[in-house]
Amino acid sequence: xxxxxxxxxxxxxxxxxxxxxxxxxxxxxxxxxxxxxxxxxxxxxxxxxxxxxxxxxxxxxxxxxxxxxxxxxxxxxxxxxxxxxxxxxxxxxxxxxxxxxxxxxxxxxxxxxxxxxxxxxxxxxxxxxxxxxxxxxxxxxxxxxxxxxxxxxxxxxxxxxxxxxxxxxxxxxxxxxxxx
Length: 180
Fold this sequence. Notes:
- By secondary structure, the protein is of the alpha+beta class.
- Helix content is 13%, strand content 32%.
- The strands form three sheets. An eight-stranded mixed β-sheet has the order 2-1-6-5-11-8-7-13. It has a three-stranded antiparallel β-sheet with strand order 4-3-12, with no helix packed on it.
- The longest helix has 9 residues, at 65-73.
- The chain is globular.
């Protein structure tokens, strides 16, 4: 079985978690219709305080359901949408994608990967100790973030759980994901 959308979530108000929906509508250059983080300019509260005019590279947050399996093995119950993601996937190594990768979600929607999500302290507020599960150190001592990736909407459309996800890698040398 190929990569697929496991769940879709959105929330019109600032809240750490996002309720699952039957579908979400992605709007080109804007994000998830009705979601608090949608917009052409940054909507993340911390980033808005620094510079509200910067472009929104975090229109759609994607997370791999395999992370939930991993944290469950460590004793944490986490479900789709509870870490604030809009699209939960299964069967795709989101963290291994290069910057600029395009993901076709269902029949119409296309998002372009902009970078990694940097997990915040709210994760431990949600489940004490969970932050240690989504941030780890590699063999060289570097930090590895595992709390999903961020993207912008290139082509709009409706996305539902069960939709296929198709990967289109960018041309040229691939750049690894960095925090956006």
